[in-house]
Fold this protein.
Amino acid sequence: MPTFTAPDGTRLTYHLLGDAGEGAGVTPLVCIPGGPMRASSYLGDLGGLAARRPLVRLDLRGTGESDLPGDASSYRCDRLVDDVEALRRELGAERVDLLGHSAGANLAVRYAERHPERVARLVLVTPSVMAVGVDIAPEDRLAAARLRKGEPWFDVAYGALEGITQGRAAPDAWETIGPFWYGRWDAAAQALQAADAGEKNHDAIPVFAGEGAFAPEATRAALARFTAPVLVLAGETDVAAPPAAMAEVAGLFPAAELVVQEGASHHPWLDDPAAFTAAVERFLA
């Protein structure tokens, strides 16, 4: 895998999919994984998007094939911005298209805040909202969950989700609500969920969102001046990033559109690859 060196000397790895490394003359789509701090391998080829668009998947420091840093405080989201900028320089791109999934959207947003001139287009896929300070109403999460009513696992999972939203989560609640993260709780979804814990840097997770990682007021002010096109892609049944909150995220940008993928949850490229790739390709075209 190709590697480069971050400003602090940490060796980082990225993965080229499609024609990203063959001088195709297309703006690279740099993909930042969520988790937070999960190896980028779970993104795969984003439902076949790599066949239509060159992808550059970054393994954040301390995850996947990238090295552990000497300074553990460098896992903080705002400090990871320097790694994304170092990747842009490594690619030799004046500007990049940038995609952030889930928690990785916080990093994508903070990069756009600091380096707006380097972002041609921004894609936020079922984004976490920590960086922008959007409040997600518990009822919005539960309403999204109720769209799955009738599935064999629903009653137990919904009870666990209610407990989480009311601040009385049972010890196994987060594991119990796993099916809500996917539009179909099939073998592919179960395999992706089972791999989650082993692909994360658990020591880095609390640092990622630690004190100083986010400054929502300043970020929102910067995004109000961010004029590049933005796509916010939500899943209709996503309890982590319900459509009502995603509409508020889209409203933070002057030139954003919201797409709600029908029947999808937090991993829309897995739930309906054709719908996901069509929406993203159309936006990037």
